[in-house]
């Protein structure tokens, strides 16, 4: 009668293969947690490896340095999503006001409300000491994000929905509420009592309303009739 082999040497390769496939994702999840909790300087690769349940040597098989590990975290959680957002922008069928409101909502759902939003706080606090991570973040996140905002504003101006504005300044009208929310969420916001009823969603709605009040073209009042 045939029997099922229980030889560990036969089962082990499959286990090792599954574990190997899981390692990069586990390492990136652990690295995101630690970078947000402790910052770039204070995070040690040994801690990342330990939290992911692997050795430091295993970590270096996938990421040759802490800088490369950080870059991979940013690409997975933020920079790697820009192609998806560009496609959504290009295929959006509503008005530019609706598009701007939609972008704020989607940004909050996919980035702002997640642990990845803590990366912005890390960059703002440590960029001066680590110019290499500042340069990387500027090229792969800031500049690409600004281009997306610029496209939204240009879309509205081209259709006559938005008034002509200086684009170099206008993009920061959109960015400022996002940056504030990310800093707030990972700093003093943790101390705000729940009973105040202040929510990120409410803040976003008010900020978008304010931005659109300034951007949207208003009908000009009729000229006074001359006697």
Automatic annotation (TrEMBL):
Residues 21-81 form the HTH tetR-type domain. Residues 1-22 are annotated as: Disordered. GO terms for molecular function: DNA-binding transcription factor activity; transcription cis-regulatory region binding. Residues 44-63 bind DNA. Keywords: DNA-binding, Transcription, Transcription regulation. This is TetR/AcrR family transcriptional regulator. It comes from Paenacidovorax monticola. The lineage of its organism: Bacteria, Pseudomonadati, Pseudomonadota, Betaproteobacteria, Burkholderiales.
